[in-house]
Automatic annotation (TrEMBL):
Function: Allows the formation of correctly charged Asn-tRNA(Asn) or Gln-tRNA(Gln) through the transamidation of misacylated Asp-tRNA(Asn) or Glu-tRNA(Gln) in organisms which lack either or both of asparaginyl-tRNA or glutaminyl-tRNA synthetases. The reaction takes place in the presence of glutamine and ATP through an activated phospho-Asp-tRNA(Asn) or phospho-Glu-tRNA(Gln).
EC annotation from Swiss-Prot or TrEMBL: 6.3.5.-
Compositionally biased tracts (Basic and acidic residues): 288-300
Region described as Disordered: spans on this chain: 272-301
Asn/Gln amidotransferase domain residues: 353-500
Organism: Corynebacterium uterequi
Catalytic activity from the UniProt record: L-glutamyl-tRNA(Gln) + L-glutamine + ATP + H2O = L-glutaminyl-tRNA(Gln) + L-glutamate + ADP + phosphate + H(+); L-aspartyl-tRNA(Asn) + L-glutamine + ATP + H2O = L-asparaginyl-tRNA(Asn) + L-glutamate + ADP + phosphate + 2 H(+)
Record PROSITE patterns: GATB
Pfam family, one: GatB_N
Assembly description: Heterotrimer of A, B and C subunits.
Name of the coding gene: gatB
Name of the featured protein: Aspartyl/glutamyl-tRNA(Asn/Gln) amidotransferase subunit B
Amino acid sequence: MTAASYDLLDYDEVLEKYDPVMGLEVHVELSTNSKMFSTSSARFGDEPNSNVDPTSLGLPGALPVVNATGVEYAIKIGLALNCSIAESSRFARKNYFYPDQPKNYQISQYDEPIAFDGYLDVVLEDGTEWRVEIERAHMEEDTGKLTHLGGVDGRIHGATASLVDCNRAGVPLIEIVTKPIEGAGARAPEVAKAYVGALRELVAALGVSDARMDQGSMRCDANLSLRPIGQEKFGTRTETKNINSLRSVEQAIRFEMMRQAAVLEEGGEIVQETRHYQETDGTTSKGRPKETSEDYRYFNDPDLPPVIAPREWVEQIRATLPELPWLRRARIQQEWQLSDEEMRDLVNAGALDLIVSTVEAGASADEARAWWVSYLAGKANEQGVELGELPISPEQVARVIALVREGKLTTKMGRSAVDGVLAGEGGVDEVVASRGLEVVRDDGAIEAAVDEALAANPDIVEKYRAGNTKVTGAIVGAVMKATRGKADPKQVNQLIAKKLS
Ligand code: ADP
Ligand code: MG
């Protein structure tokens, strides 16, 4: 199958004529032990259909019971997003057929969500703060999972059979829906990415989800419409479904802006529809025409009583909230005395947590920052991986830093030790031993090497004595060579000065 080709309008031209409006719907799978309405395990990755029960299979007569931890986690998320928490909220049935949803309806919340009217302030790459308004965060259950066989890349298109796994059916989900995001203009894709990134960081910090976009425990649907600049009324939106990385969120928005603009420029109309994002080429393709909420025939689930959240309980939950990521960043910035820009560089490099752990393992903040943000970031860049993906731990970096600080390794040797760990040669001490990294402290040996080098370079000695003290580089080089790099250059320089003074 070849990728469909699209007419796209140049990005700058899109912005001359149109104003993008976005709406982001993020599904977060909660890391409760059991499912939202039954007791089977909510664990990811088990043998297919091993975590099922009459309720999650929708068998006749089975009755749902609400998972209190699921509700507590939903409230945590709502509070962290500055939402109001409903004293009483309700579950509704969202009716639709899907082969991995045996009940033929999904239990969700409709007009009475547990959390509503909040916001999340996100920071863009250049440090600008952007407030994303939250419309609601509601509880629902996940569907099962289909595996399509015989097609390309596991897609349904061209498949000859599909397998149903109900392990995920009934796993608690929170859906967080933004209000329309207006006015971002050229930065719309960046705002979308920053928002989903901030949300991911937030739910992970709250400990309510592992928020793994790659494993589907966090997924984003991105709505986008364009309206001619100056027009108030929103244009028609498309909804790109199940985007599973931050980079893809950014690209999906960008692509839809350029695609929709091309359609509008040709006098065409945007159809309200779902679209699928293609990781391979960064395009979106047509899904199904979008249902309206009437199509789902929502009604209150008669099997479930309203969810009551007494104020005292909400306040108890508020008291258990951990330090939120943006407050933690502000505190650390102050503790380490970093400028806004230094802090931003470090956050953008994905180095914050690594540096914190390195400091916890005994390094100073300055040392840890220097190693991660310069040397290791360079290595990550060379290898085209994220900093956190390098095969070296903060503890190992702290060990190298300690050896350099104690004078047992020169900085250069420290780098060699790091290289060895990255190359899979073992832990720091192992690499130090196998690569023979040690500063020679034996003054006798170094002194002998210095004497030898001075004797071999009478011209340099002469210049030095004539007052040009900057000429010692060749001598130091010769000593380093003679000691196979094990001398401490500082010590060598001191010795030279002593001998020639
Ligand atoms: P649906 O049931 O279609 O998923 P939701 O209300 O759950 O609808 O989510 C729609 C999302 O799109 C919300 O974030 C909303 O703010 C946003 N939105 C609504 N209208 C538009 C529009 N015309 N253009 C862009 N985004 C929109
Ligand atoms: Mg929705």
